[in-house]
Specification:
two-stranded antiparallel ribbon; five-stranded mixed β-sheet; elongated; single chain; alpha/beta; 7 helices
């Protein structure tokens, strides 16, 4: 059993570079799609640490898992540092070409061992809203991410937020807590906003 690795942006880039290097050395080019906190780290430079990389990799699955397991054993990481547990939260639109974008090739374009696709902010927003935990919005570590993504996308009300979520997930799979949570989040955003510019007093 390895130790839980904590990834900030620099550590995540190093891990992906090493994964790509190993794939290229095996004369392979693999592809993964990244979601969740890792996607926010890569694309929005979210100031967080994440203990694992939420990714989906349908092609070359056995090969990718072997590379990741080898890295875990050598570096003392948890064996599930790269895992596809996020699959249960994917939208039916996940295969649409406009919901993800190619982020980067590792270790380089000249040595294409790993191509990383990242879910776009609108999709991550919808996914995090659907996965919102029971117990009140302040009990979830996802809430700051939802606020960050709302500002990035330009969502300013719970109705607009729910409309975006429903573009990815039908109403029948959304729990009542999703609407209630969004109402609470955007009510809080309204209270915290200052001078109508969306900047909270905490961020000044």
């Amino acid at each position: 059993m390895g130790n839980k690795q904590s990834f900030d942006l620099a550590a995540l880039e190093l891990a992906l570079t090493e994964l790509g290097r190993r794939a290229f050395a095996a004369d392979r080019t693999i592809e993964i799609a990244v979601y969740g906190g890792s996607a926010l780290l890569l694309t929005l430079n979210r100031k967080i640490n994440t203990s694992d990389v939420d990714a989906v990799f349908e092609r070359d699955k056995t090969f990718i898992k072997k590379l990741a397991t080898d890295m875990a054993e050598e570096l003392g990481w948890d064996e599930d540092w790269l895992n596809d547990g996020v699959k249960g939260w994917l939208s039916a639109k996940d295969s649409d070409p406009d919901v993800k974008a190619l982020f980067k090739t590792y270790p380089s374009e000249e040595q294409p061992g790993l191509r990383v696709f990242v879910a776009k902010p609108e999709y991550i927003f919808a996914m995090k809203c659907r996965a919102m935990r029971v117990g009140g919005v302040d009990s979830s570590s996802d809430i700051d991410d939802i606020r960050l993504l709302a500002r990035e996308i330009g969502i300013k009300s719970s109705d607009d937020a729910l409309a975006l979520v429903e573009k990815f997930y039908p109403q029948n799979v959304l729990e009542p807590k999703t609407r209630l949570g969004l109402e609470e989040i955007f009510s809080s955003l309204g209270v915290r906003a200052a001078d109508g510019d969306g900047t909270s007093s905490r961020e000044r």
